[in-house]
Amino acid sequence: METLTQRLEALMDAFPAKTALYCVELTTGAPIAAIREDTRAVSASTIKVALLCCALQDVMEGTLTLEQFVPISAGDYCDDTAVFEPNYRQDGASLWEMLYWMIVSSDNTATNAVISLLGYDHVNAYCRKLGLTQTSLQRKMLDFQAVAEGRNNYTSLKDLYLLFSALYRGEILNQPLRDTALDFLSRCRHTDGLQRYIPDPVVVAHKPGGLDHLDHDAGIFLLKDRPYYLGVFTWDGPALDGQPQQCRLIGQLSRMVYDTVKGGNAE
User: Fold this and answer.
1) Which residues, 6+ apart, have CB-to-CB distance to 254 below 8 Å?
2) Is residue 229 within 8 Å of 162, Cβ to Cβ?
3) DSSP readout, 135-199?
4) Which residues lie below 8 Å from residue 172, measured CB to CB, with a gap of 6+?
């Protein structure tokens, strides 16, 4: 009988994109499946998990407050915003609300305002302190000029596991701020990846990320008896209809893991 990892690898290897997957049982820390989990990839919006945790760490330490006003500068504004639209609230919002929209709707304008508030060096120092060796913040959202100049944002599935597991186990932040982080992540409105083919009402605290030829999703499935972390990266994917195909792959891999873990047969 094929193991879960063998079945996952067969599906991933047949797909016309680079792929990585990491799944870990949260209660024991035992890996369920690990396929290129250390690979450093362009992060897309998954970098926002590190931004969230860094900002909340500053709130815990008293250098920021959730109530403080965070302005939106002209350079931070992105046309794709569905929150800070023309003639509506373009001046800014509280830090709490900026973080909320950054995670729940993946709003890039809110994200850029948070990056301006925190600063690149501060975020990267926070990541290094947590042992996130593959994570680096080098540009703001939708700054394609920075990409052309060789600056991008990176992470790995293992680094994201360290963040999500630290939140789950209470290893970072205090209880109220951990609750805030997990509440935001569990309300993520983009559910066409990890949850795509899951029929049950399971709570998933996660963060997807997508760019041309790239689609990621990573987070924790809060099953009552066997919670687990699952992250899937897909990049350098098909040019036509790329992201829908990659989201379908993420959904298929996630359903394979879910059925195995729920059945108590993870290898």
Assistant:
1) 193, 194, 195, 196, 197, 198, 217, 230, 232
2) no
3) -B--S-TT-HHHHHTT---EE-HHHHHHHHHHHHHT-SS-HHHHHHHHHHHHT-S--SSTTTT--
4) 53, 57, 130, 166, 178
CA–CA distances in Å: residue 229 to residues 6, 123, 207, 254: 19, 23, 12, 11
Look up residue 172 and give its two tokens: 């970072």
Report which DSSP code applies to 84: S
Q: Rounded to an integer, what distance in angstroms lies between the CA atom of residue 75 and that of residue 112?
A: 9
Give the separation between CA 55 and CA 37, rounded to whole angstroms.
26
For every residue of 191-244, DSSP letters joined together read -SSTTTT--S---EEEEEEEETTEEEEEEEE--SS--EEEEEEEES--SSSHHH
Encode pLDDT of 14-34 as tens digits: 999 999 999 999 999 999 999
Percent residues over pLDDT 90 in the chain: 89
Q: Report d(CA 25, CA 106) in Å as an integer.
A: 27
C-alpha 136/C-alpha 154 separation (Å) is: 5
Of 4, 43, 36, residue with least CA distance to 22: 36
Distance CA 51, CA 120 (A): 10
Distance between CA atoms of residues 195 and 176, nearest Å: 26
The mean of the pLDDT values for the chain is 94
The pLDDT, as a whole number, for residue 212 is 86
What is the C-alpha separation between 102 and 133, in angstroms, rounded?
A: 23
Structure tokens at 222: 């809060």
- Nearest one of 121, 105, 122 to 188, comparing CA atoms: 105
